[in-house]
Amino acid sequence: MASSLSSILVLTIFISSLSLPPSLVLAKDPCHFPAIFNFGDSNSDTGGLSAAFGQAGPPHGQSFFGSPAGRYCDGRLVIDFIAESLGLPYISAFLDSTGTNFTHGANFATAGSTIRPQNTTLHQSGFSPISLNVQSYEFHDFLARSQVVRKRGGVFETLMPKQEYFSNALYTFDIGQNDLTAGYFLNMSTDEVKAYVPDVLSQFKTVVQNIYGQGGRYFWIHNTGPVGCLPYVFERVPILASQVDEYGCASPFNEVAEFFNRELKKAVEQLRKDLPLAAITYVDVYSVKYSLISNGKKLGFPKPLRTCCGHGGKFNFNLNVGCGGKIKKQGKEVLIAPACQNPAAHVNWDGVHFTQAANQYIFERIVDGSFSDPPTPLNMACYRKGH
Ligand SMILES: *[C@@H]1O[C@H](CO)[C@@H](O)[C@H](O)[C@H]1NC(C)=O
Ligand SMILES: *[C@@H]1O[C@H](CO)[C@@H](O)[C@H](O)[C@H]1NC(C)=O
Ligand SMILES: *[C@@H]1O[C@H](CO)[C@@H](O)[C@H](O)[C@H]1NC(C)=O
Questions:
Q1: Residue 22 has what pLDDT?
Q2: Signal peptide position in this chain (predicted)?
Q3: Neighbouring C-beta atoms of residue 149, cutoff 10 Å
Q4: Closest Cα to residue 114, out of 192, 194, 190, 173?
Q5: Is the pTM of this model over 0.85?
Q6: How many CB atoms lie within 10 A of CB 348?
Q7: Which of 250, 247, 230, 256 lies closest to 238, judged by CA?
Q8: Dihedral sign of CA atoms 364, 367, 369, 373 in order
């Protein structure tokens, strides 16, 4: 009797542990991130560059927002899907002083941002003056001033994050691609670009350390994508036919991106040692983007390198006339770089950026931790590696 009871008990425990997902067996509660603070470039810009240098025009935003929404995309970016999945509103651009609400975070990213300051203007080089160090100054200022403003009460209190949100927030990063193209656009060789990557990453580490020093604890860091699969790079920097891979991507630029990513991963490992209370997740977005492009046909994206919004050439891309570009014909403005019929069947939006459909695909692959080190899902990113 006793033995049959205990075997029933054992069996019950066995069955119930089988039917539970592993995360529940470990009994860790999902994290509660009350805010997101994002640092980056156009891959996660939700209106920063638009606020400072003029709005991104139509047809940007057409697939989701119905009109331009400060994003270089037909709709949502990966950072928007991240905010949605954490139950937070889309995060407002810090530089956007009209109609913004920073209760649940702020976005310091601007299109064209690099980690290192570029010593050129936007109009000279196309790179944003809001490099990562500037984004970090903005964050520092926001941390202090948001609390001063909150104390005014009334509507101001409803527009700013609470003090404690800063230590509980998720700090997200997606930056580095423009540091690589910056060298190539100055006619540097691959070896010359590689040679400055350590300096770029040392400046990246400094910013993460600064944020930690101000109380940030949870970091979600995207690596850089296969920049050699983007028309704005391979149409501008000459390469040999033998350097084009089987999917049409330019190998030298992708190899530099992979080199950057290996070094970034080492930098993250160093940061884990230097910042003992930080939970830092490194996310291999490169692999997701490359597999999306290389399996494009199977996944419903028959021409993954060809832009949806553009004009001319093999890739529907022209270096001088970008997405939404117009010319004057007999006094009338004529759209010569319109969007395609079905953006959802394209990976590439405008030669530089991914479409909403691609961003959603990327988000869905990374959200469960399959591409993360440690393999932490997004909603568990407050737990430290090995804890
Ligand atoms: C910008 O100029 C400073 C000072 O001359 C230099 O240290 C830095 O490396 C330059 N940045 C780049 C990206 O070349
Ligand atoms: C700002 O957003 C928060 C959270 O969504 C909301 O509670 C608050 O009312 C908003 N403030 C204004 C002025 O709309
Ligand atoms: C790079 O090389 C091209 C072709 O030789 C030249 O037209 C361009 O001016 C050079 N750019 C820079 C920044 O030196």
A1: 52
A2: 1-27
A3: 15
A4: 173
A5: yes
A6: 28
A7: 250
A8: positive
Residue nearest to atom 8 of ligand 2 (CA): 158
Active site residues: 42, 350, 353
**Tokens standing for residue 318:** 């022209």
| Domain 31-297+355-380: top CATH class | alpha beta
Pocket of ligand 3 (CB under 6 A): 186-187
* Cα-to-centroid distance, 382 and ligand 1 (Å): 36
**Site to substitute for ligand 2 among 158, 160, 165, most atoms within 8 A of C-beta:** 158
279 contacts 384 by C-beta, under 8 angstroms: yes
188 φψ region: left (φ > 0), alpha (ψ -120 to 50), beta (else): beta
Pick the ligand that lies closest to the CA of residue 187: 3
CB contact set of 358 (below 8 Å; sequence gap of 6+) = 289, 292, 301, 346, 347, 348, 349
- Contact assessment for residue 299 and residue 289, using Cβ atoms and an 8 Å cutoff: no
250 DSSP assignment: B
Q: What is the DSSP string of 208-221?
A: HHHHHHTT--EEEE
CA gyration radius for the chain? Answer: 22
**Interval 196-254: pLDDT, tens:** 999 999 999 999 999 999 999 999 999 999 999 999 999 999 999 999 999 999 999 99
Structural domain boundaries of the chain? 31-297+355-380
Task: Determine the distance separating the centroid of ligand 3 and the alpha carbon of 124, expressed in angstroms.
Answer: 13
Q: How far is CA 65 from the centre of its chain?
A: 19
CA 171 – ligand 1 centroid, Å: 27
Instruction: Identify which ligand lies nearest to the alpha carbon of 193.
Output: 1
Alpha carbons 26 and 16: distance in angstroms, whole number: 13
Angle at 355 between CA 351 and CA 361, to 5 degrees: 130
